[in-house]
Amino acid sequence: MLADTLARLEPADSAMEDRVAAHLDNLTKPPGSLGRLEALAVTLAAITGEAFPRVAPPGVLVFAADHGVAAEGVSAFPQEVTAQMVANFVAGGAAINVFARQIGARLEVIDVGVAGTVAGEGVVDAKVRPGTANMVESDAMTRGEAVVAVEAGVDAAERAIEAGCRCLIVGEMGIANTTASSALLAVLTDSPVAGLIGHGTGISAERLAHKQAVIERAIAARAPACDDPLDVLAKLGGLEIAAMAGAYLGGAARRVPLLVDGFIATVAALVACRLGAATRDYLIFGHRSREPGHAHALSALDAHPLLDLELHLGEGTGAALAFPLLEAATRMLAEMATFEDAGVAASQTP
Q: Which end of the chain is more exposed for a tag (fewer CB within 10 A), N or C?
């Protein structure tokens, strides 16, 4: 399935970009006066291949998994919190539930590797294994498991699109996943770990130094091939990160806008782009996280987020908050009058 998905990836429609840019300049406003909203409208048209794209209803996919490296004490919370938060998602009590309801999103929670038992109904069981291994001591997962996790993400994207979703927001839950994401980013961008790590869910300065040392030890021990994204993912990544990358690939193959959340989501997007470069055309970056590594990940993808609200929660929350801007861009295209329609004289260029 992964090979088929990669084979279906194509660049966005550049001819549609030109057509929609011309239409925007004929609307009842000075050319370019709506700034980045106009650029967003052009991007959405190129992604969908439609002059008047629609992005509603959105679909939110939250992937959950545990990380063996949590045993190294890199997080402020114990590993059991992953399963507890999945239960909270199902009960509708998390931040992403609130924001998903606000934008009328279809929300699906997918267990791709939670170590404990997930309580309650409503979770899609796509468990590859009960959490990754401790990447300091061994590869986080096998290459085959990484592929299965990526394909679980492709499947989730397909389900959402078949259910009618016209935009995908990809979120996550997994204690210690900032550690795995920082390790992935360091290798994929050949960067020092020190500039990429932050306090995550609230660790102390002393534990932050420990987190850096753990990541550096894992990278040295695993020695992943930086030009082989599946090798890097298998040795240092997380099951939910792999699944998020798969969701981006699956959505891009179906020409659906992909609204990227914060640090972990952006690292997953980087993995997806290394697997299939055309994926980049379908990514829209929702917000800039407070996580130090996020700026570096954004730079690696030449990305300019829509919002900066100093968030660092994850779950897909920042992307969900940015979604109304996508809807505004599509409504501007579809509902604003042209100069001719409104009987307004167009501006004259000297």
A: C
The answer to whether 323 and 167 are in contact (CB under 8 A) is: yes
Q: What is the pTM of this model?
A: 0.96
- C-alpha–C-alpha distance, residues 304 and 258, integer Å: 14
CA–CA distance, 16 with 42 (Å, rounded to integer): 8
Helices 177-188 and 263-275: angle between axes, nearest 10 degrees: 40
What domains sit in the chain, N to C, each tagged with a CATH number?
2-53+333-342 (1.10.1610.10), 58-325 (3.40.50.10210)
329 with 41: CB under 8 angstroms? yes
Q: Is the pLDDT score of 349 beyond 60? A: no
- Could you give the residue ranges of the DSSP H alpha helices within the chain? 2-8, 14-25, 35-48, 80-91, 95-102, 143-162, 177-188, 205-222, 229-236, 239-253, 263-275, 292-300, 317-335, 339-342
125-157 per-position pLDDT tens digit: 999 999 999 999 999 999 999 999 999 999 999
The C-alpha atoms of residue 104 and residue 13 are separated, in whole angstroms, by 28
Of the candidates 315, 327, 335, 340, the residue annotated as catalytic is 315
CA proximity to 290, closest of 272, 270, 305: 305
Helices 229-236 & 263-275, crossing angle to 10 degrees? 140
End-to-end Cα spacing for the chain: 56
According to DSSP, the residues that pair with 60 across neighbouring strands are 107, 169
Is 315 one of the annotated active-site residues of the chain? yes
Percent with pLDDT over 90 in the chain: 89
Choose among 337, 186, 167, 335: nearest CA to 251.
167
